[in-house]
């Protein structure tokens, strides 16, 4: 992957992620891309339209897949051979297809920097979308409690929650 900004040409990189059904609400989503060169000030990430293919994307077709809306975030300064990250939580809200565009933050002293691609070796350096999900707790029906009509039923929280679980290990309260 390569991004650059200069007076003569701009090079953007495009990424696509297929996110399966998440089974809970998104707490955070972070794009992580391994930089093979340093940058000051870094790059921006935008949402972009779907419909492009890696083989079909070139200088003539890329304009149809430009940035949509405001920048999702920026990487900030980074060194060569480091993992960079950009918060994209505002875009990733559920399972589905997410198309991202990386573009350089224009600077007069540096116009190009490079990243590991989806075909890079080792695979650990390939771009990833890290999504943290809050899985809802599982409540199990309680039994053994009864009261007469018009009479309050008081049960200690530990009794009500004893058979309930939370996959994220959050404390359950009643």
Question: Which short descriptors sum up this protein?
Answer:
single chain, 174 residues, mainly beta, 1 helix, 3% helix, 36% strand
Short note summarizing the structure:
By secondary structure, the chain is mainly β. 3% of the residues lie in helices and 36% in strands. The strands form three sheets. The protein has a four-stranded antiparallel sheet with strand order 3-8-5-6, with no helix packed on it. A three-stranded antiparallel sheet has the order 2-1-9, with no helix packed on it.
> Which strand order do you get reading across the main beta sheet?
3-8-5-6
How would you sum up the major sheet? 4 strands, antiparallel
Secondary-structure class: mainly beta
Query: What's the multimeric state?
Result: single chain
Order of helices and strands: EEEEEEEEEEH
Number of helices: 1
Radius of gyration: 23 Å
Q: Give the total of beta strands.
A: 10
CA-to-CA gap between the ends?
50 Å
Give start-end ranges of low-pLDDT stretches. Answer: none
Strand content: 35-45%
Overall average residue pLDDT: 85
Characterise the protein shown here:
The chain has 174 residues and is mainly β. It is built from one helix and ten strands, in the order E-E-E-E-E-E-E-E-E-E-H. It has one helix spanning 157-161; strands at residues 2-5, 10-11, 13-19, 25-35, 43-48, 67-74, 82-87, 96-104, 112-114, 128-134. The strands form three sheets. The protein has a four-stranded antiparallel beta sheet, with no helix packed on it. It is elongated, with a radius of gyration of 23 Å.
